[in-house]
Amino acid sequence: MQATPLAGDLVLSAAFDGVNVAPTPFSATYSAGIVGSYRQEFGAGALASCPRDAATGACTVYLGVTALSTGTAFSLVATVDGGAPLPTRLVEGRTTRGAALAGQYTYYYAVLNASADATVTVTVAELAGTAAVYMNANATLPSRGLYALAARTVQGTKAITLPPGSPLRTPAGLLTIAVFGASDTRYYITVSTSATVATLADGVPMEGSLALRATAYYSLPVPPGAGDVTFSTATLAGRTQLYIAK
Predict the structure, then answer these.
(1) How far apart are CA 85 and CA 68, in angstroms?
(2) How many other β-carbons are positioned within 10 Å of the β-carbon of residue 137?
(3) Residue 124 · residue 207 · CB < 8 Å
(4) In a 10 Å sphere around its CB, with 0-12 CB exposed, 13-18 middle and 19+ buried, how is residue 181 labelled?
(5) 58 within 8 A of 87, measured Cβ to Cβ
(6) CA distance 199 to 220
(7) Which CATH number among 1.10.10.60, 2.60.120.380, 3.40.640.10, 1.20.1050.10 corresponds to the domain 88-193?
(8) Which of 15, 119, 178, 200 could form a disulfide with 20 if both were Cys (CB 3.0 to 4.6 A apart)?
């Protein structure tokens, strides 16, 4: 990690004990100022005591930049040498736009709170190029040679479905997903359950994708004294129907 003062002076503080998430020069495990060239390096030995995320195996380093003079401005950069790629967390019911280069993987994970009798669906709608989708129901990142389920294509949308009672459903609710670029590809990816109800925000678009005959559910909080409420959909591919109840 390297901080570069553009104006004024500063101290860069770091901690990775999992407790101190707002390090200062007085509470940090490590700190560096002008004497240390505003630079901190942590080897594998130093990071061995860092708590690991159960889903991703990642260790989180928390940083604090403290100004020592008025009008301090700086740039900050952090680099990681090697290590396994970190997956992006998917929020249940919320579509994420992604991309994968040809021959490369982009990884995701989701932790679901749905009951065992809910159907879990992962969908990938390609915007450009061609992708393959693989999934594991544990912390192991899937690949073309190591996966529990692979997506099938239904009317242009790739989908993986975990039905109720599937042996792949675990109490932890953890899913790991890999999107492999058969060519350079861009896509929407969504993980949802039959119990998912996503909350809409006033005036904020939400993108989605669905497998054939699947349904996505949404809710909108309407404040007291509100005027007209309007819902509109713009279909990018396929055909959809919109149903509303109050």
Answers:
(1) 36
(2) 20
(3) no
(4) buried
(5) no
(6) 6
(7) 2.60.120.380
(8) 15
pLDDT in tens, 137-186: 877 889 999 999 998 775 567 888 888 777 777 766 788 899 999 999 99
Q: By the 8 A CB rule, do 190 and 96 touch? A: yes
With tokens 């380093």, the residue in question is: 61
Length of the chain: 246
- Among residues 73, 103, 100, the alpha carbon closest in space to that of 4 is found at 73
Q: How far apart are CA 10 and CA 32, in angstroms?
A: 9
- Residue 125 CA, distance from chain mean position: 17
Q: How far is CA 186 from the centre of its chain?
A: 16
User: For residues 152 and 159, is the Cβ–Cβ distance under 8 A?
Assistant: yes
Domain residue ranges in the chain: 2-77, 88-193
Beta strands in 16-141 (DSSP E): 30-32, 62-67, 73-77, 88-89, 96-100, 105-111, 120-128, 131-136
Higher-pLDDT residue of 54 and 66 is: 66
Q: Phi and psi at residue 47, in whole multiples of 5°?
A: -85, -5
**Tens digits of residue pLDDT in 50-60:** 888 776 777 88
Count Cβ atoms below 10 Å from residue 35 Cβ, excluding itself. Answer: 6
Alpha-carbon gap, residue 43 to 46, rounded angstroms? 5
How is residue 157 annotated by DSSP? E
Q: How big is the CA angle at 222 (ends 217 and 226), to the nearest 5 degrees?
A: 145
The letter for the amino acid at 194 is: S
